[in-house]
Design a protein that fits this description.
Blueprint (H helix, E strand, L loop, with lengths): L4 E6 H8 L3 H10 L3 E4 L5 E7 L5 H54 L11 H7 L5 H5 L20 H6 L2
Antiparallel strand pairs: 1-3, 2-3
Length: 165
């Protein structure tokens, strides 16, 4: 005689036996982790392995077997999640390395920008820089006012002229 038998339980009964919620039982039925049967009236039953003796000790061992099956299922799910997360972490690490390499290459190509030169009212005439509004009005002798920044006189690019930048 075969030592293992199967017994049908409702979703609620199976949840109580497995010590989980009915929603968790339904999720396992959907994933195929638990076996299901549908009754003639449409009731969904969960098929669980039990032992033929209805003795209390056998019921405890059946419960222990069911709990071990549940723990094995959870352990396998967690292992799959850890493997996925490791793959994802490796992928992200590679992506960060690639970005760092690109950034390093781009920064090496950028020439060092020269420091801005300070222009005074007298030097603007020598360099051909345009006068500021303060210089034109003759108010350039005020020591309390911060100096106005002078931009070097370079022809503006076509894009800057078109968009007014």
């Amino acid at each position: 005689m075969n030592a293992d038998h199967s017994k049908r339980y409702t979703v609620r009964e199976a949840a109580e036996l497995l010590n989980i919620t009915p929603e968790a039982v339904r999720a396992r039925l959907f994933r195929g982790t638990l076996q299901r049967e549908t009754g003639d009236d449409g009731t969904v039953y969960v098929v669980l392995r039990t032992q033929p003796n209805a003795d209390q000790s056998h019921d405890q061992s059946t419960t222990q077997v069911l709990m071990l099956e549940r723990l094995d299922s959870q352990l396998e799910d967690m292992r799959e999640q850890v493997a996925f997360l490791r793959r994802e972490l490796d992928h992200r690490t590679d992506e960060i390395r690639r970005r760092d390499t690109i950034i390093a290459q781009l920064t090496q190509r950028i020439p060092e920008l020269p420091a801005p030169e300070e222009h005074h009212a007298s030097s603007s005439d020598e360099t051909g820089a345009p006068e500021t509004a303060t210089e034109r009005e003759g108010g350039g002798d005020d020591d309390d006012a911060p100096p106005l920044r002078q931009w070097p006189t370079k022809p503006r690019s076509l894009w800057r002229r078109m968009f007014g930048v």
